[in-house]
């Protein structure tokens, strides 16, 4: 049973969660698909971002992890990556600021000398029962973190990304089916789908793949940081598989899209969502 206490700030802290999200499965069999690659992952300190970073490390990829203020979680993730023989650079800052996004990309280049994979993943969400409760301040916060940062990161990274590089954007099942209590979040996630499709068309001649992942209910720090305990306890039970997914169950989608296995895919979105049909 999930008994994670409500956290009062986003994006949330994984070390406080109970039970802990599962981010690295022994069943995952790596095959060096990302050997020698360098990735930058926003929100890579915890949740899906942590699972992706660790899966990338298993495949031979070193990673720059961008996080807001979750130092303990970020250091744990860096340690897990190091144990796998890969390198990890931690970059602390606010991705809603374009100047910081430029700095993050530059720090990655200074450390590793190149960038092959950009994963735009960090997000926030603030439930409201009615659209009239969504203030201008909240609206700007939601869009600044959830979609504006994607523009900022891509703009800063583009001069370093070469042919066969990959951009992977985390959207959400809510982009496809909507959410009555997460209107601004769903709208921003919908924008990410259109951003992914449009950016893929823009970069296709450069040989840069742009794809997305639309997770359903995944057990991450964002959940106890968003919802009251009664909703956390039943989180994810309404999907066909009857449970919330674990971050490690979404991570292989990112590995696939980052690797040469997805060489004939761009402008597409994968859906690890517990069986919900969204026709997207």
Explained architecture:
The chain is of the alpha/beta class and 280 residues long. Helix content is 37%, strand content 11%. The chain is built from eight helices and seven strands. Strands 3-2-1-4-5-6-7 form a seven-stranded parallel beta sheet, sandwiched between helices. The radius of gyration is 17 Å and the shape is globular.
Topology, element by element:
Elements: E1 38-42, H1 47-58, E2 62-67, H2 71-83, E3 88-92, H3 98-112, E4 117-120, H4 136-157, E5 166-170, H5 174-177, H6 183-203, E6 209-213, H7 229-233, H8 247-258, E7 269-270
Parallel strand pairs: 1-2, 1-4, 2-3, 4-5, 5-6, 6-7
The low-confidence parts are none
Strand content: 5-15%
Distance between the termini: 32 Å
Sheet with most strands: 7 strands, parallel
Q: What radius of gyration results from the CA coordinates?
A: 17 Å
The overall average pLDDT, rounded, is 94
- Give the helix tally: 8
Number of strands: 7
Proportion of helical residues: 25-40%
Counting helices, strands and paired strands, the structural category is alpha/beta
Sheet with most strands: strand arrangement:
3-2-1-4-5-6-7
What order do the helices and strands follow? EHEHEHEHEHHEHHE
CA-based shape = globular
């Amino acid at each position: 049973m999930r008994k994670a206490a409500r956290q009062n700030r986003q994006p949330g802290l994984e070390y406080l969660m109970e039970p802990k999200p599962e981010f690295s499965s022994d069943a995952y069999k790596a095959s060096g698909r990302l050997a020698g690659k360098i990735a930058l992952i926003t929100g890579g300190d915890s949740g899906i971002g942590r699972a992706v970073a660790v899966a990338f490390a298993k495949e031979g990829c070193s990673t720059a992890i961008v996080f807001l203020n979750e130092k303990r979680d970020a250091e744990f993730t860096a340690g897990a990556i190091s144990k796998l023989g890969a390198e990890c650079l931690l970059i602390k800052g606010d991705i809603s600021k374009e100047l910081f996004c430029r700095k993050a990309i530059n720090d990655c280049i200074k450390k590793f000398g190149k960038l092959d994979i950009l994963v735009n993943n960090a997000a926030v969400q603030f439930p409201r029962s009615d659209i009239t409760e969504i203030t201008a301040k909240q609206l700007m916060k939601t869009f600044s973190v959830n979609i504006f940062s994607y523009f900022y990161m891509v703009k800063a990274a583009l001069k370093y990304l070469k042919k066969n590089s990959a951009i992977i954007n985390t959207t959400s099942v809510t982009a496809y089916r909507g959410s009555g209590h997460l209107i601004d979040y769903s709208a921003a996630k919908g924008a990410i789908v259109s951003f992914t499709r449009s950016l893929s068309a823009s970069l296709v001649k450069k040989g840069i793949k742009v794809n997305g992942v639309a997770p359903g209910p995944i057990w991450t720090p964002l959940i106890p940081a968003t919802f009251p305990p009664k909703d956390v306890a039943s989180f994810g039970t309404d999907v066909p598989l009857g449970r919330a997914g674990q971050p490690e169950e979404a991570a292989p989608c990112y590995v696939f899209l980052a690797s040469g296995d997805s060489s004939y895919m761009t402008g597409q979105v994968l859906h690890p969502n517990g069986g919900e049909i969204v026709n997207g």
